[in-house]
């Protein structure tokens, strides 16, 4: 058994359209590698910072993301390697373990499909597009009911119907 703590710069972006971990961002890995009868069992956690765009207010934000890793890498010629399909288990090749696909898949599943800068983000005003988080208290627009629009011009301003 061996424990490894490493910080590695991400070679390529991981993520979705609205959120992801950019290339060059540091991945902090805290892993435990154990020799088992069929291969090497890798367990631990990987931590990084994602950047995204809020789906409600369209502002950029950063968020901490941590994943847990538990993956068996089968020895060449082991029963596990021989009896499973190529895409069902990872394999040790040339005495090396390739963690990149495992980490990429785990971060892809951990990132939200609808990223938000905050759980209570109010979004944008549907009328003027201003961010409601920075709008003054009671921000609203007077909208005249279209059924009254023809009469509104004929009435004095103090007698006009409410929206």
Instruction: Using the alpha-carbon principal axes, give the shape.
Output: elongated
Low-confidence stretches: none
Order of helices and strands: EEEEEEHEHH
Give the termini distance in whole angstroms. 71 Å
Report the oligomer: single chain
How many alpha or pi helices? 3
Estimated helix fraction:
10-25%
Which key terms come to mind for this protein?
single chain; mainly beta; 2 domains; 12% helix
Short description:
The chain is mainly beta.
What do you see in this structure?
The protein is mainly beta and 163 residues long. The chain has 2 domains: 2-110, no CATH class; 124-163, no CATH class. Helix content is 12%, strand content 34%. The protein has 3 helices and 7 strands. Strands 1, 2, 3, 4, 5, 6 and 7 form a 7-stranded mixed sheet that branches. The termini are far apart.
């Amino acid at each position: 058994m061996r424990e490894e703590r490493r910080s590695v710069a991400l070679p390529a972006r991981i993520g979705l359209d609205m959120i992801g971990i950019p290339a060059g961002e540091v991945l902090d890995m805290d892993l435990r590698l154990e020799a088992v009868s069929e291969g090497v069992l890798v367990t631990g956690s990987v931590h990084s910072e994602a950047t995204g765009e809020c789906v409600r207010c369209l502002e950029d934000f950063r968020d901490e993301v941590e994943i847990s890793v538990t993956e068996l890498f089968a020895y060449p010629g082991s029963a596990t390697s021989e009896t499973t399909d190529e895409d069902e288990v990872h394999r040790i090749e040339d005495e090396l373990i390739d963690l990149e696909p495992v980490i990429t898949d785990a971060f892809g599943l951990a990132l939200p499909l609808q990223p938000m800068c905050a759980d209570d983000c109010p979004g944008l005003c549907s009328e003027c597009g201003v961010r409601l988080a920075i709008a003054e208290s009671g921000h609203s627009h007077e909208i005249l009911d279209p059924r009254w629009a023809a009469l509104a011009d004929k009435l004095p301003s103090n007698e006009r119907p409410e929206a």
